[in-house]
């Protein structure tokens, strides 16, 4: 099976079959990451542009690493140091870079829908690397790969996403992807940080973390987005931590083999205690490794055509 699309913009519009194909392909690519020489020629001659209007460590570096492992050429454009600073529009920036021969754009933007706009402007492929408060599909995919790898399945699992749901593109991609793959998705946070229209989402909603965490297989802890907290969504950081922080005591209510996940970057001591972040149930660094495999899979499926998935 091939992906019959030129862009990856979100998991809401993706089928379970497409998600399964990406996860299976990523699983086969993980082997390359453990080789002494991490280099395959699959994407030789392809040019990939990372175009980031917001900061990133994990997403940007893992896309660039994935492209380099697959022998593609990468160009990295960020707001500082580019002609965006001189007022060049998003559209003109895209057309300029496409005219240089870019085959695929990986785009992070503070505006929800920016990658969708880009996908209409350029003939090249576009991957959404996080758009505003909308989606972060590759994070959703790497989270699902981590769950499947550790639990052997996604279907039937109870997965809790806790924290600032309203501002979280990670929460949106996870809840769409996980529900399509048959998981029971619970979301929990202060009522002020739950999105409008939450009743229309395929989730069970909680405001009490002790109730929400009861019997879950996975807890995915979201970052409190301090940069968006200028409107007093909760009384204080201390209060947030008391009611919504994931601690060792709270975790005892989950299944005994619970997985603890966090997309990063973490606010240790706020949404997650350091002992949980570094504890026996945490798979946070596994998520990062799986991020490289998922992004390799996507680059292959969008650019590589129908050749062998893993060739030496
Ligand atoms: N999880 C995530 O998107 O991290 P970065 O902002 O570092 O890319």
Word description of this protein:
- There is one protein chain.
- The chain contains eleven helices and nine strands.
- It has helices spanning 16-33, 58-69, 90-99, 114-121, 137-151, 169-180, 209-212, 237-244, 248-251, 274-277, 284-304, and strands spanning 47-52, 73-78, 104-109, 125-131, 158-162, 184-188, 204-206, 218-221, 259-261.
- The strands form two sheets. A five-stranded parallel beta sheet has the order 7-6-5-8-9. The protein has a four-stranded parallel beta sheet with strand order 2-1-3-4, sandwiched between helices.
- Helix 4 (114-121) links the parallel strand 3 and strand 4 (125-131).
- Helix 2 (58-69) crosses helix 11 and helix 5 (137-151) packs across helix 6 (169-180).
- The longest helix is centred in the last third of the chain and has 21 residues, at 284-304.
- It is globular, with a radius of gyration of 19 Å.
- The two termini are 22 Å apart.
- The model has no long low-confidence stretch (mean pLDDT 95).
């Amino acid at each position: 099976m091939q992906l019959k699309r030129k862009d990856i913009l979100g998991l809401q519009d993706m089928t379970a079959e497409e998600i399964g194909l990406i996860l299976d392909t990523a699983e086969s690519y993980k082997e390359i990451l453990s080789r002494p020489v991490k280099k395959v020629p699959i994407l030789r001659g392809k040019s990939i542009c990372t175009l980031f209007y917001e900061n990133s460590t994990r997403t940007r570096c893992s896309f660039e690493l994935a492209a380099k492992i697959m022998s593609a050429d990468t160009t990295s454009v960020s707001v500082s140091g580019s002609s965006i600073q001189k007022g060049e529009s998003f559209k003109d920036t895209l057309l300029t870079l496409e005219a240089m021969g870019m085959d695929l754009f990986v785009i992070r933007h503070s505006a929800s829908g920016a990658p969708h706009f880009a996908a209409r402007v350029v003939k090249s492929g576009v991957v959404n690397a996080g758009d505003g408060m909308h989606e972060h599909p590759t994070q959703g995919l790497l989270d699902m790969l981590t769950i499947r790898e550790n639990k052997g399945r996604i279907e039937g699992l109870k997965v809790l996403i806790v924290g600032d749901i309203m501002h979280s593109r990670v929460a949106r991609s996870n809840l769409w992807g996980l529900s399509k793959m048959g998981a029971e998705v619970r979301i929990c946070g202060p009522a002020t940080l739950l999105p409008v229209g939450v009743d229309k989402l395929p989730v069970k909603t909680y405001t009490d973390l002790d109730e929400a965490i009861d019997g879950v297989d996975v807890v995915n802890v979201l970052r409190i987005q301090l940069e968006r907290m200028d409107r007093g969504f909760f009384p204080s950081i201390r209060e947030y931590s008391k009611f919504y922080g994931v601690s060792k005591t709270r975790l005892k209510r989950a299944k005994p083999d619970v997985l603890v996940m966090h997309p990063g970057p973490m606010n240790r001591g706020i949404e997650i205690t350091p002992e949980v972040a570094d504890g026996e149930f945490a798979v946070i660094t596994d998520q990062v490794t799986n991020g490289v495999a998922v992004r390799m899979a996507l680059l292959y499926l969008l650019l590589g055509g129908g050749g062998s998935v893993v060739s030496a």
